[in-house]
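From: lab user (bench 3)
To: helpdesk
Subject: output format question, protein + magnesium ion

Hello, I'm new to running complex predictions and I'm not sure whether the block I got back is the full result or only part of it. Here's what I submitted:
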Amino acid sequence: MFGNELQGFFMLKGLAISPGYALGKAFCIRHFQLDTVPSVSVAPQALDHEVARFQNALQISRTEILNLLELPHIKSSLEIANIFQAHLTLLDDPDLKKEVEKRIRDRRLNAEAVLSSVIKDYSEFFRKLPDPQFQGKAIDIVDVGQRILRNCEGEAGLQPLADFKEGVIIIAENLTPSEIADFDPRRVRGIAIEEGTPTSHASILARSLSIPALIQVKNLVRSVSRGDLLLIDGITGTLEVNPPAPRVEEFQSRLHRYEASLQTLQANLSQPSVTRDGTPVSLQANIGKLQDVDAVLANHADGIGLYRTEFAYLTRRRFPTEEELVETYSGVVSRVSPREITFRTIDLGGEKLPHLGGEVLEKNPELGWRAIRMALDRPEILRTQVRAILRASQVVPHPRIKILLPMISTLQEYRRCREILAEIQEDLQTQGLGPQVPPPLGIMVEIPSTALMARAFAREVDFFSIGSNDLVQYTLAVDRTNTRVAHLYQPTHPAVLRLLREVAQAGREAGKPVTICGELAGDPRFTGLLLGLGLRQFSMNPASLTRVKQAVREWSCQDAEGLAEPLLACSTAEEVEDLLRQAAPPREHD
Ligand code: PEP
Ligand code: MG
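Helpdesk reply: Thanks, we reran it on our side. This is the complete output you should expect:
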């Protein structure tokens, strides 16, 4: 922290993960640790007041959720709307209300302490029930409990987010995807969080909503108060708190210049994606749900290079049915065709799927029973999904769909999936519901051993998609979600570059397409690097397409390829980045 704190002005430093500038008032979101909410004794004559405080918090929470359900981005997503409907049911649950009121009176304690103990007891009770429906309820109770707790504490006249008319900057220790879904994107100008990593889902969501965002901002939560005036510089990673008026003016004019430059980039969107020396580069988009298709089309993506299909499984308290999946997937196919669409089968671990029944807690979930490993163990889940994909492809005359398998580490896994796909295609075809031939089946290359064996895989698979997010994590042995080791998570580490080149070469030799779809693909600073390593197909967050297209058009392939050897010869990520900075063509829009 530095700056003139006497006048209330200071700066904090973080990591910029979604570009842009934002100016707005702080809106702080707190997470309560249910075990550590302080207990305060309440005098007998104040017990009625304490109960009323709790009832008032319930009422505010109810109004907040009803307002949220009216927002267009929530209305248009049945899955998110369902979560909030479940929260409403809990708020109206007479047993929960009675229990809290009774404990306040019996124990003569403050509403927050009692409420947190009730939430804890209820969620543990539901978590232990064998019926998966009830286990899902445990998650809802904790979620809605946080909201009621916030509203209990907020009694001293704090405004809810909806009352900030002018747009806010969200301040939090961390955010879950459902909390981000909670925001009205029209009211949120920026996000700053104390923890987080560039590839965590909150970061990915911030980028997809084009909200300037910083993560890993040290001392954030204890130094920023609600209503503070904040400036976020999503390029350099600084957060200015209560800056003086001349600084605000200067910042505002920079913000306007930036927005104008975005409009120029936007106007260039219909330009072809070719390098200066005429090599075409395919720029596709990553999506997670049907609503993301708007951004895909608005940003002129060549197709969908990665459809992360987990959303439908995470937002329901049970597995989605084949019919439900067909409905969602058909929506994507009919809107995106005739462009290509790559469906990735679910990439989840047991810990994220309480509806599998039983506790599936693992010591190292990232190295455990997840993605294709789980899907091959529970083939009915995979079959339902693949059937839905093939059926949905039939809503257009000439579908261009592909199926992508996550976390493949052996050829046997790939071969088994190929057999399953062939069986399903034949079965559907005889019923007149599926395509004449199975769609191309490819693999994510996100495990170092798979990258090293790319030539062997290339003989059998139809295409590769490099998942750099996980490839970096597994190559460098750095948990991609762990803030304490985030400095070691280096996508430009020479070891990673060598693996990227291995896959690009194997694909080229075998005539098998190679896409890169991790976050690295969407960062224009690294476009020259990826071109130099031989990659020609990128898939990214739709919001990154404008900048990456600009970078593609600025680089020449020949220059980029000339850099490959010197880059691969570097000893550290810092050396790689220095070299790239020196070699990059001049940029206007950083
Ligand atoms: C990756 O690992 O790079 C990837 C694209 O997949 P996810 O981020 O969903 O793990
Ligand atoms: Mg991955």
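A quick orientation on your result: Residues 1-7, 155-159 have pLDDT under 50 and may be disordered. Let us know if anything else is unclear.
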